[in-house]
Amino acid sequence: MIDKNSPIPVYYQLKEDIKRKISQGVWKVGQCIDSERELSESYGVSRMTIRQALGELVQEGILIREKGKGTFVCEPKVKQKDMMSFSNIIKKLGGKLETKVLALEIIDTPEDMHDVFSFDKLYRIDRMRIVDGETIANEIVYIPCDYCGYIDEKLLEGSLFEILEGFGYKIDYSQSSIKAIIMDDYYKKLFNVDRDVPLINIYSKTITNNGKILFVEESTYRSDKYLLEVDISTREGKFR
């Protein structure tokens, strides 16, 4: 299983073999995998190598360590690391996505959005995103009516990005703020759960290639099911 003469690092070979065993069901979701000592003996490598491989798998959200108990297989999460619609993320992962539109209405532009949109009327779109039968996210989107052609609830069961691209917009990037929120009775009902689950709230402005704020979105995700990866880098001249 491990080729110590290979140019591929031993820890990486080990990591990939553990991932293979998980995918094949040798270790199932929620199950404790072998201890570092047991893995060291079965693979014939040092515990330091085992620790490095397991550490990377924990960082990738595949395993989780519980102090005093062991290392367990995590439930797979929807992972987003770039500018991609939720629909396309799920399609790429091979999951089954259902979108339930809770509301599609035209509202007066809220006072706190006057500095974002110079229009009197906005569409307010409220949708639930359900993956493989489990409710993962609630999305509330605000977009000027003037930016859209005809939209209805049926269209909104698909990708909003694709709808807007059909209207001629090219989405470039988004500006987001992220915070944790506390599960309460409202969210238990919204997400159809009877226990406390961790939630994250993301407030974002999505911007076109010509600098126009296309829509504002406030999304709430189950963070035990959804992982947002953010790359932060410095650009020349921005930080001194």
Describe this structure in words.
This protein is of the alpha+beta class and 240 residues long. The protein folds into 2 domains: 64 residues, Winged helix-like DNA-binding domain superfamily/Winged helix DNA-binding domain (Arc Repressor Mutant, subunit A); 151 residues, Chorismate lyase-like (Chorismate lyase, 3-Layer(aba) Sandwich), CATH 3.40.1410.10. Helices cover 24% and strands 33% of the residues. Strand 1 and strand 2 form a beta hairpin. The N and C termini lie far apart (48 Å). The C terminus is likely disordered.
Q: What labels would you give this structure?
A:
Arc Repressor Mutant, subunit A; Chorismate lyase; 2 domains; six-stranded antiparallel β-sheet; two-stranded antiparallel ribbon; 6 helices; Tscrpt_reg_HTH_GntR; Chorismate_lyase_/UTRA_dom_sf
